[in-house]
Design brief:
This protein has about 150 residues and is α+β, with helices and mostly antiparallel strands. The protein has a domain at about 5-110: Gcn5-related N-acetyltransferase (GNAT) (Aminopeptidase, 3-Layer(aba) Sandwich). It has helices at about 15-25, 30-35, 45-50, 90-105, 120-130; strands at about 5-10, 55-60, 60-70, 75-85, 110-115, 135-140, 145-150. It has a 7-stranded mixed beta sheet with strand order 1-2-3-4-5-7-6, with helices on both faces.
Length: about 150
């Protein structure tokens, strides 16, 4: 699949169902690895839109990615980033990560953090490639999570 025009915009309440579908489809491959649904598959995205900074990536006529950012005192946390499987490999994840960098700087923050399940090895490799460093591993949400940060 070739690159297509992707637009990034803030999510609105009407996007909640499409974001949920995107997350469920993107994370479905991890269910067999974990033996359960990963936490992002269980989130009510209407609440996320109301409480946090949520962005969507759209191609003409369809949502292809989502990003949930949570502001903390000294950093911006990527609570979730997901891209529809058929849209992966087109640079959408990289665009969403760049957006999180831009938003952190716009908000006067110099660090972006995230965490991901230790079994999501391809995600860990992608974040490291983008410039994130692993800071620690700890038990959270019933599984070992890999905590990473990017200093801007």
């Amino acid at each position: 699949m070739g690159k297509s025009a992707v637009t990034l915009r803030r999510a609105v309440a009407a996007d909640a169902a499409a974001i949920s579908v995107c997350v469920r489809v993107a994370y479905a491959k991890y269910v067999p690895r974990l033996g359960r649904e990963p936490k992002p598959m269980t989130v009510e995205y209407g609440c996320s839109i109301a409480e946090h900074q949520v962005w969507v990536a759209e191609e003409p006529g369809r949502l292809v990615g989502a990003l949930v950012l949570v502001r903390h005192t000294d950093h911006l946390l990527i609570e979730n980033i997901s891209v529809m499987p058929e849209a992966q490999g087109q640079g959408i994840g990289r665009q969403l990560l760049r957006l999180s960098d831009d938003e952190a700087m716009r908000q006067g923050l110099s660090e972006v953090r995230l965490y991901t399940n230790e079994h999501f090895t391809e995600n860990i490799a992608f974040y490291a490639w983008y410039g994130y460093e692993e800071t620690n591993r700890a038990l959270l949400h019933g599984a070992v999570q890999v905590f990473m940060r990017r200093i801007l």
